[in-house]
Amino acid sequence: MAAKTPALDDFDRKILHEVQQNNQLTSTQLAERIGLSPTSAQRRLNRLRKDKVIKGDISIISGADVGRTLTMIVSVQLERDRSDIIDHFKKAVRNEPIVMSAYYVTGDSDFVLIISARDIKEYEGFTRTFLYDNPDIKGFKTTVVMDQIKTSFYVPPWE
Q1: Among candidate residues 37, 138, 145, the one with its CA nearest the CA of residue 82
Q2: Per-residue pLDDT for 2 more than 60?
């Protein structure tokens, strides 16, 4: 059964837009931007978090500034399409710190992983232990990111 989507009104949509731009706004700043009282704005924001419309509040870190100079996009193809294999791979990906983001996809690949590594040696170690040593992986293809043009989790305006 699909999860129930909470009803969102114009104020909720405005809050979501604003906190995607800056999740450190005070209740007063947020209220001024959306046209509600600080108490009402905070109550709505808390509800959006409780209902998991807002899944988390994060900071986007410059990988290069913390010594993680390589970003790779890895397309992974599993050996077989079985739910237990897919679920096992999803769990392994969630527990792997070098994986920044992961997507279960359609097409030639089964998964697309975004990887952050200090250097090529760290990435090679990841490929050996996580990919080559996994008998459920048929193959993978790595694309090295040369320049990060945009980093965002912003969800565009919606109706």
Answers
A1: 138
A2: no
